[in-house]
Write a structure and sequence with these properties.
The protein is mainly alpha-helical and about 190 residues long. The protein is built from six helices and no strands.
Length: about 190
C-alpha cells in the first residue's frame, strides 16, 4: 500500500510540472494568436475572450506551480520527521535491547523451572507475543488442537488458569502500580 501510495505521489509530482508547462504553452499560443488577430484588426470581443482564456491558462499554471512547491515543502518536512522517527526507533531498540534480552532470559529460565518441553516453551513464547492458537499452529505447522493441548499443559505446569494469567505472571513486575504512576503532564521526580 505504501509503495502504491509512493508511486501515485511520484506520478503526481511529475505530472504537475508537465501540466503547468502545458498551461504556459497554451497561454503562449493564445498570446501569439491574440497578437496576430490584433494586428489584423480582429474583433474586440474575440480579442478579449482570447485574452481572458490566456489569463486563465497562466493562472492555472501559477496555481499548479504553487501546489507543487507546497507539496515539495511538505515532503521535505515529512522526510525530516521520518528521519527523526527512525533515529528515535533506533535509540529505543538500542536502549531496550539489553532489557529485552534480560526479559527473554528470565522468561526462558521460568519455563525451565516449570519443566516445559521445548515445544511447550516455543508455544508459550508465541502465546506471550499475543498470537492466537490458530496462528501458533500455522507457525509450528501443527494442528490447532495440538496447540490448545500444549497451552493447557503450560497452564497446568505453571499453576495458572489461562493466557491472561500467563501474561500477567511475566508483566506484573514490569508495570508500575497505579499509585506509582504520575498524572499526565506531571514531570517525573527530580525534573523541574
Amino acid at each position: 500500500m505504501l509503495i502504491a501510495g509512493r508511486d501515485a505521489t511520484d506520478v503526481r509530482s511529475r505530472a504537475t510540472p508537465v501540466a503547468a508547462a502545458i498551461f504556459v504553452l497554451i497561454a503562449a499560443l493564445i498570446g501569439i494568436d491574440v497578437a496576430g488577430d490584433a494586428a489584423a484588426g480582429g474583433d474586440r470581443g474575440h480579442l478579449l475572450t482570447e485574452g481572458a482564456v490566456m489569463i486563465l491558462a497562466l493562472g492555472g499554471a501559477a496555481m499548479l506551480w504553487r501546489q507543487l512547491a507546497r507539496a515539495r515543502s511538505e515532503a521535505r518536512l515529512l522526510s525530516v520527521d521520518l528521519e527523526a522517527a527512525r533515529r528515535e526507533a533506533d535509540r529505543y531498540r538500542t536502549e531496550a535491547g539489553e532489557a529485552l534480552r534480560g526479559l527473554g532470559e528470565a522468561i526462558d529460565a521460568q519455563f525451565v523451572r516449570w519443566h516445559l518441553s521445548p515445544a511447550e516453551r516455543e508455544v508459550g513464547l508465541l502465546l506471550l507475543k499475543g498470537l492466537s492458537h490458530k496462528e501458533v499452529a500455522a507457525i509450528r505447522a501443527t494442528g490447532e488442537t495440538t496447540i490448545r493441548q500444549q497451552a493447557l499443559a503450560i497452564y497446568r505446569k505453571a499453576g495458572l488458569r489461562n493466557r491472561a494469567e500467563l501474561s500477567a505472571f511475566f508483566l506484573e513486575d514490569l508495570l508500575l502500580p497505579a499509585a506509582d504512576v504520575a498524572p499526565r503532564g506531571t514531570p517525573p521526580p527530580g525534573h523541574a
